[in-house]
Structure formats: structure tokens, C-alpha cells
């Protein structure tokens, strides 16, 4: 896996302001939006997001003229972080790299659910994000399969659907979610 930027990374970089103070506000808004979407879903208040970021509502609208712009940018930023994580994990043992990335993917699913609900899948960014995610995470599964650590009767799409299905469930707490995910991933592990 090379350090070549993924298409989604280019989208994220093009949207981010260059001035340091503007970039700081932009990043604070993305962090606040991610947190608000995880807590309240697609109905999160823009005023609450601005408040959490420590900026005025005008700053939010200057960076994200529409609610849709904010949703798309949060989504693209999350996928870009997943792609970067895949690159950071390539030096780990194959099974450890794959499961560490899937843990990050599971966290991403919380935000994705709110964003996808808001955009109804009608965004051009979704295709770019999907392609980038497969290009980043797919090689981690393939490497684990090559060394005999992961089953070979599945593909990356199967694996993402498995984790996404688990993350669509409501859990009592994070510990229960982690246990259920570990049980499912145990079924992905090869029985050499």
C-alpha cells in the first residue's frame, strides 16, 4: 500500500481553508458536528454545533453554506481518516492491522448513519468515499488472507457489511458493542 492520496483525501484538502485561524475554526466545527451527529443524529442543531466549536453561527455558515455541505464534509473527513489509518497500520501484523482498522470503521459507522440519513444517498461524494475506503481497507483484508489469518471465502464488501450490520444495532454500552464485534471477527479469522 502506497502513500498516494485517496480521491476522498483530495476532496477534504480542497475544502479546508488555508489560513491558520480559519482552518482551526473549520476543524473545530467538524469535530463538534461529528460529536453532535453521533449524539443526536441528522437532527443535530447547527446552533449547538457552532456553540460546541466555540464559534458563531456565521462562522459555521461561512464554512458550510448549507446543512448538506456540513454533512458531506463530515462524511468525507471521516472516510479520509479511515484511509489514513489504513496506511498507518500496514507495518503491523496482518490480523492486528485488519482488526485495528475495522475497529476504526466501527466508530465511523456511528457518524455515517446520521449523515447518510440526512443525505439519503444522493451525494456524489458517496461514490468517491466508497472507492477510497475499498482502496484503503481492501488490501488489509487481502494481506491477512494471504498469510492465512483471515478466511478466503469472503471479500472486503462482505466484511464491511458484517461490521456495518453489527454497528446498526443498539447496545447497552461500548463494552457490549466491543464484545459482539470481537465475536463476529472471530468468525472472520482463519482456522488453519
TrEMBL record:
Range of residues in the leader sequence: none
The name this protein goes by in its record: TetR/AcrR family transcriptional regulator
Entry keyword Ribonucleoprotein: no
InterPro entries, sorted: Homeodomain-like_sf, HTH-type_TetR-like_transc_reg, HTH_TetR, Tet_transcr_reg_TetR-rel_C_sf, TetR_SbtR-like_C
Keyword Transcription regulation set for record: yes
Domain of life: Bacteria
Cited PROSITE patterns: HTH_TETR_2
Pfam families in alphabetical order: TetR_C_43, TetR_N
Alphabetical UniProt keywords: DNA-binding, Transcription, Transcription regulation
Domain HTH tetR-type intervals: 23-82
Regions recorded as binding DNA: 45-64
Source organism (scientific name): Streptomyces lavenduligriseus
Gene3D superfamilies on file: Tetracycline Repressor, domain 2 (1.10.357.10)
Amino acid at each position: 500500500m502506497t502513500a498516494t492520496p485517496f480521491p476522498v483525501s483530495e476532496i477534504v484538502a480542497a475544502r479546508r481553508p488555508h489560513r491558520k485561524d480559519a482552518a482551526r475554526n473549520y476543524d473545530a466545527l467538524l469535530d463538534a458536528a461529528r460529536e453532535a451527529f453521533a449524539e443526536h443524529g441528522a437532527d443535530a442543531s447547527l446552533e449547538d454545533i457552532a456553540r460546541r466549536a466555540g464559534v458563531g453561527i456565521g462562522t459555521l455558515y461561512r464554512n458550510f453554506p448549507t446543512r448538506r455541505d456540513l454533512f458531506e464534509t463530515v462524511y468525507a473527513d471521516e472516510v479520509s481518516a479511515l484511509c489514513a489509518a489504513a496506511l498507518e497500520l500496514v507495518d503491523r501484523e496482518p490480523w492486528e492491522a485488519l482488526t485495528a482498522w475495522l475497529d476504526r470503521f466501527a466508530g465511523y459507522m456511528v457518524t455515517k448513519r446520521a449523515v447518510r440519513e440526512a443525505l439519503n444517498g444522493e451525494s456524489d461524494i458517496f461514490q468517491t468515499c466508497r472507492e477510497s475506503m475499498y482502496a484503503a481497507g481492501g488490501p488489509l483484508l487481502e494481506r491477512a488472507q494471504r498469510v492465512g489469518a483471515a478466511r478466503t471465502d469472503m471479500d472486503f464488501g462482505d466484511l464491511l457489511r458484517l461490521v456495518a450490520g453489527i454497528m446498526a444495532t443498539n447496545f447497552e454500552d461500548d463494552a457490549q458493542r466491543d464484545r459482539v464485534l470481537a465475536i463476529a471477527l472471530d468468525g472472520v479469522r482463519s482456522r488453519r
